[in-house]
Amino acid sequence: MIQLSNVAKYYPAGFGRTYVLRNINLTINEGEFVSIMGPSGSGKSTLLHILGLLEEPSEGEYRFLDQPVQKLSEKRRTELHRSHIGFVFQAYHLIDELTVYENIETPLLYKGMSGNERKSRVADVLDRFNIVAKKDLFPSQLSGGQQQLVGVARAIVAQPKVIFADEPTGNLHSAQAIEIMELFRELNQKDGVTIVQVTHSEANAEYGSRIVRLKDGWLEPEAAPAV
Ligand SMILES: Nc1ncnc2c1ncn2[C@@H]1O[C@H](COP(=O)(O)OP(=O)(O)OP(=O)(O)O)[C@@H](O)[C@H]1O
């Protein structure tokens, strides 16, 4: 599903470049639940943004769903993103002026889905996440945990194949964090959604089946799976 070959990312710095990612080779199969870990500044968010089609690599090749991402037109890349990718941010990134209902509905509007189908999809997700009673509230009227539930609801409403989550529980206390992680586990195991999360938390990483570690922009060799 995801294949990075010799991917690097750099930014111009003075007369040279600063490399944030170097020589990344990574394959993630459909149905995996992967955690990206590493020290602050090691390039985790940058890698996740590249995987989620929010940023482009400077070097190397990225194939997503067997398509060479960098060779696609901007329009096709946007379509790929809207059809198959859900993104969850640490700081929620909900739209303050929209209600919970409207926030969750947004990706379906972008997809051009009919009014009736939108209604039924949003109703299903509100129900599943137990937030029906909050549907007319604005993000500022919710707790952090509830805002992140809405963030995840918005990420999955269009039924993506993969969710990329950037420290999804970074702003939450532990009970709320567990609720979000349990939800990811269910989405992965029951619905078969591939999940790739950036996390500093070993406890969160335990929910996944594989840990990928970055250090100074390099990928560390992965431990062989236990037999
Ligand atoms: N637009 C940019 N221009 C220049 N440097 C950048 C840019 N974006 C990120 N960087 C640098 O890339 C490095 C990696 O950043 P990144 O956010 O990927 O790290 P991270 O591992 O996610 O860190 P954290 O755990 O603190 O969130 C940092 O040193 C950062 O300053």
Automatic annotation (TrEMBL):
Q: Which InterPro entries match?
A: AAA+_ATPase, ABC_transporter-like_ATP-bd, ABC_transporter-like_CS, ABC_transpr_LolD-like, MacB-like_ATP-bd, P-loop_NTPase
Q: Where is the ABC transporter domain?
A: 2-227
Q: Name one GO molecular function term.
A: ATP binding
| Claim: Cell membrane is one of the keywords in the record | no
Query: One Pfam annotation, family name?
Result: ABC_tran
Q: Which GO terms describe its cellular component?
A: membrane protein complex; plasma membrane
PROSITE patterns tied to this protein: ABC_TRANSPORTER_1, ABC_TRANSPORTER_2
Cited CDD domains: ABC_MJ0796_LolCDE_FtsE (cd03255)
Q: Keywords in UniProt for this one?
A: ATP-binding, Nucleotide-binding, Transport
Record family assignment: Belongs to the ABC transporter superfamily. Macrolide exporter (TC 3.A.1.122) family.
Question: What's this protein's name?
Answer: ABC transporter related protein
